[in-house]
Amino acid sequence: MNQFRYRLSSAVTALLILTAIILPAQASALQQSSHASRISSSAVANQTDSAPLSAAGSGAETEDSTNAEKPLMSPSGEKGSGLSGKVFARFVLPEDWISLAALPGAQVASASIQGGPTPGTETVFTMRSFGQKVRAWLNGYRLGYWPQEKGRLRSEAYRNPDGFIEVTPENEDTRVSEHFRLRDFVSHGQTEVWPKYVVLREPLLDKLELVIEDLNDHGVNAEGMRIRSGFRTPAHNQAVRGEGSARDSRHQFGDAADVFIDAVGNGKESDLNGDGKVNFADVKLILDAVERVEARYPELVGGTGLYAYYGRSGPFVHIDVRGTRARWVRGVYRGRSHRSAKSRIPAVKSGKPAVAARSSLNHDVAYRPIQ
User: Fold this and answer.
1) Which is it for strands 163-167 and 196-198: parallel, antiparallel or unpaired?
2) Among 12, 122, 219, 245, whose CB has the most other CB atoms within 10 angstroms?
């Protein structure tokens, strides 16, 4: 019996020693120390804002003080991820970090402002889980209530988000894709409140980059694509319902953005087709690009809405990756008086208001619910 206990004790001791050797070896493949700071497993658990993930699996941090004012992300043109190869960010929950260790050559370095990552890296943002939200608030930032919290779950696509990306003055300028930064997607309002929180899905970034690429390939300069509205907190979405926002808008789920193309830097939609006017025909070119991208990549299918508002940015386009195809137009009336067109709007069984709309590039009047 004593011999058996001795053998068992020896086996347990050997297992503990082996574990102590193997686990740090695995962690070292995922975590890289820098001269200035070190990302550890405890830092991940404590909700580190972000840490860049090397796409190439090589390279080390630099202490060059000239990087202090540079954005955290790699410069435009570096190879990223996604179907476009231009997505430079990943958004994960703390428990999902373990899956990153399985990535070939995965490396994580410090995301400190003093020593930015080397080019060719992707930033991994550790999200705050949805369960950390207390009623309508998270850490002093007002979010509101998602449809599922109110017992209004239309489908799986409308489930509560998994978590929230924490945005601070230090990381808001992080490049999340070739053309966009984290701050582009922050919900409007609460300008003096920090930190802020964002829901953002990588497929949306991928689709926007593919649309830009497609437009450029078809002779339309889309380098100036701007985000008019990205993520919306449910609280903000409720506040803009009178402006046409849908009650369960996809903006609340981080997979939708309203965009326009500012080719001249004046903060407004540009004349994309060269006819000397800025109107519905220009945003229709963006819809054409979305159609081509979705035909090529069905996994990015979603909704597209054309809006002919002439506010601060002029006409714009809603693009999302909800997983099902949807199209609508709002704000364009041709050929009939407003009263006549309104009288012909059919009833919508879902209870959503319908809008009579007409493309300036075709002659079919389409009736679509407001999204």
Assistant:
1) antiparallel
2) 122
